[in-house]
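Journal club prep — side note

Before the paper discussion, L.F. wants everyone to see what a predicted structure for a comparable chain looks like in token form. Sequence:
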Amino acid sequence: MIVRSRGTLSVAIGAAFALFVSLLAASPAAAAGTGSGSQAGRHCVLVLAPLEDGETLSRVLSETCGETKSMALQASDIDASAAAIDLFMIAEHSGWGGQYYWVTGGAACDNAGYSFTPSSWWRTRISSSSYENNCDRMNIQNSSGNRANGIASHRDTMPLGFNDNVTFINFYNG
């Protein structure tokens, strides 16, 4: 028969709890983060205004994230008509897998289209893209400043040098 004092048992339980907490903090999910600078584990919707003459970036009307696209749209306080048209989608993995980032607006793409800089989380995770409503071409730039212009927007994989490395996107009707 093993006899332990109450103090020894408390110390053992405390040590086990501390070990559990440290393992949890070191897990990949915890390392991904969930703060304002991170969109890990979330689907996001970006609502943009069409490019105006002289603009290089579209005005961001709203950006919200949620467990689903529908939840992200519900979290937005923007007028529904401003986000009524699906324009462009980027995916975390090749072949349109993983988390999604939808871009919506109030008008279909024209020759100028829409431009944006992905959040820091997405800049290192864009691996595929798709389009709707005439947004069939895109210009992209990577962290080295290299550009791929006039490429098809519907891609199951980003071009060489751009997979998980996109810092600027302009999608338009070409």
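L.F.'s comment for the group: The chain has a mean pLDDT of 80. Keep this in mind when we get to the figures.
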